[in-house]
Structure formats: C-alpha cells, structure tokens
C-alpha cells in the first residue's frame, strides 16, 4: 500500500475526480477526509466508503471561506490526529468569451479555483510546518493551465495561476520536507463535463443530446489517444505524487491528457 496510515484532506471530494482520489487514497491505506460544499452528496459518499470498511469521513467545506477551511482542518485533526496530504481539487468551470462574460461569474471562478486553493494551502501548510508533520500538497490544475482556449478565460486564468502558486509554495515548503506538485488533466468524464455540455446546449439552443454529440466529436478530434480520461486515471497520478515513489519530485506539473498538449 502506497499511502498506509497517511492522513489526507481532499477538497471537492464528493464527485468526479475528487471522489476518485478519495477512493484511490483509501484503497492505498490512507485515512481520508472528504470536504465539499455539496453536503448531502459528500456525506453519502463518505458513508458508502466507511460502510465498505475504509476510514473515510465527510466534513462540510467551502474553499472560499477561510473559517470553513479552518473548521475542516480541525475535523481532520479530531478524526485522525494530524494531516500529511492536502489535495486542492475543488473547482468550477465557466464558458463565455471575455466580451460576453459576466464579471461576477469571472471573479467567482478565480475565487473558488485559485483563491480557494491559496487559502486551503495557507491554512494547512501553516499547520504542517508548525507541527513538523506534512508530506505533500497537490493541486488539480488543467491542460487549460498551460494553453489558452476560446471561451475559457476565467478557468484558464485560474489554472495558470495555480501553477504559479504551486511553484512558489514548492520553494517555500521544501525546507520543511513538504513536496508541492500539480496534475494537469485533459478532458475527463465527470459531472463538470456534463455541466459544460448543458451550458453549450443552452447557449446554442440545441437539445442536450445534440450538444453532447457535437462537443464530444470536437473534443475527440483533438485527443491523440481518441478518448476521454476516466477520473481514476487522474487519481492514479495524484496517488503517485502523494506517495514515496515521488519522493524527489517537487514544483512539478504532470500532464495527464492523452497527448493533447503535445499536438
Ligand atoms: N473534468 C475535467 O475534464 C477536468 C479537466 C482538467 C481539470 N479538472 C479539474 O479537476 C478538479 C475536479 O474536477 P471535476 O471534473 O471532478 O469537477 P466536478 O464538478 O465533477 O466536481 C467538483 C467538486 O468540487 C466541489 N466544489 C465546488 N465548489 C466548491 C467550493 N467552493 N468548496 C468546496 N467544494 C467545492 C463540487 O461540489 C464538486 O463536488 C477541478 O479543479 C477541475 O477544474 C477537471
């Protein structure tokens, strides 16, 4: 087991990639706290996993609220006695050109994806450093954190920003023995993709099934391996980065994109 007895907090762990990370961490022997704004969904996932014998619990968490993050950290410490790993996974998407974008929505994407990850890292890293316990912080950036895309300015700005934050934090935490890295997924089959399809259908006045067909066909043309990623394929790389197998890796971002950024 790669993460035996490690304690991890995964933000946005109620579904999609976050849930796959929680499940893979638990399979690798970690004790996991799943934090999410989606309380019913998160609590149900944690209940299901703990019923299956995994030490997983849920805490309500809004990454845009520093008080909520401190409470989530307290819940981790109360349940499992400390924290070794933080995964900054919580995120939202947007789908509008700069000209058409709503400034409040634009700011909200930055607030959740970038400022939220900053606050979680600040609060958890301070605890790790003060207690001389802490091994790894991992950010979910994106291929949109390395290459721009029309209609994705807020999302891309937040994901490019995460890579800058990740590199600075890696330098600051290296003396404390804490490694800091990022994963840059391509297109992953999760509820976030469904949200994008629904939003495109709405904007283009198409039935959802037609919008799905059109978006998937367009995406698949750009993915060399010819398919979307599964959430588990992203989670496997997060497990690797959190584990001793990655003991000399810090300040790095790994593309998990089926070759998309190579084209
Ligand atoms: N799906 C993709 O194709 C893809 C590609 C690249 C990167 N990513 C990134 O991976 C991460 C997970 O994406 P996903 O596809 O699983 O998304 P998702 O929408 O399926 O799940 C996101 C989770 O984050 C939670 N969340 C949203 N706002 C929150 C907040 N303020 N506080 C706490 N939790 C909050 C949601 O409730 C949800 O459980 C995101 O950061 C996303 O940007 C996804």
Describe this structure in words.
- The protein is 50% helix and 14% strand.
- With 263 residues, the protein is α/β, with parallel strands linked by helices.
- It has two domains: 7-188 and 230-254, 3-Layer(aba) Sandwich (Rossmann fold), CATH 3.40.50.720; 189-228, no CATH class.
- The protein starts with 6 loop residues before the first strand and ends in a 7-residue tail after the last strand.
- Nicotinamide-adenine-dinucleotide is lined by residues 11-12, 14-18, 36-38, 61-64, 89-92, 112, 116, 140, 142, 185, 187-188, 190-193.
What is the tally of beta strands?
7
| H and E order | EHEHEHEHEHEHHHE
Radius of gyration: 18 Å
For the sheet with most strands, the description reads: 7 strands, parallel
CATH fold name of the largest domain? Rossmann fold
In terms of DSSP E residues, the strand content is 5-15%
CATH architecture of the largest domain: 3-Layer(aba) Sandwich
Structural class: alpha/beta
Assembly context of the chains: single chain
Percent of residues in helices comes to 40-55%
Task: State the low-pLDDT regions, or none.
Answer: none
Give a list of the ligands: nicotinamide-adenine-dinucleotide
| Span between termini | 36 Å
The DSSP helix count reads 8
Number of domains: 2
Strand order of the largest sheet: 3-2-1-4-5-6-7
CATH class division of the largest domain? Alpha Beta
Mean pLDDT, all residues:
97
Dominant shape: globular
């Amino acid at each position: 087991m790669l993460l035996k007895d490690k304690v991890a907090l995964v933000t946005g762990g109620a579904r999609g990639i976050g849930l796959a990370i929680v499940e893979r961490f638990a399979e690798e022997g970690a004790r996991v706290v799943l934090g999410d704004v989606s309380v019913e969904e998160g609590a149900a996932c944690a209940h299901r996993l703990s019923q299956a014998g995994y030490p997983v619990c849920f805490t309500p968490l809004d990454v845009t609220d520093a008080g909520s993050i401190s409470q989530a950290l307290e819940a981790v410490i109360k349940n499992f006695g400390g924290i070794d790993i933080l995964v900054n996974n919580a995120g939202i998407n947007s789908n509008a050109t700069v000209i058409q974008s709503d400034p409040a929505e634009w700011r909200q994407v930055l607030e959740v994806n970038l400022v939220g990850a900053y606050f979680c890292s600040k609060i958890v890293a301070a605890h790790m450093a003060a207690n001389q316990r802490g091994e790894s912080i991992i950010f979910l950036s994106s291929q949109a954190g390395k290459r721009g895309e029309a209609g994705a300015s807020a999302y891309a700005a937040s994901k490019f920003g995460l890579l800058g934050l990740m590199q600075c934090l890696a330098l600051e935490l290296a003396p404390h023995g804490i490694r800091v890295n990022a994963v840059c997924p391509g297109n992953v089959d999760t509820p976030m993709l469904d949200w994008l399809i629904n939003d495109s259908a709405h904007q283009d006045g198409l039935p959802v099934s037609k919008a799905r067909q059109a978006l998937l066909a367009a995406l698949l043309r750009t993915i060399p391996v010819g398919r979307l990623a599964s959430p588990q394929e992203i989670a496997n790389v997060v497990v690797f980065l959190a584990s001793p197998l990655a003991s000399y890796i810090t300040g790095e971002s790994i593309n998990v994109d089926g070759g998309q950024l190579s084209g």
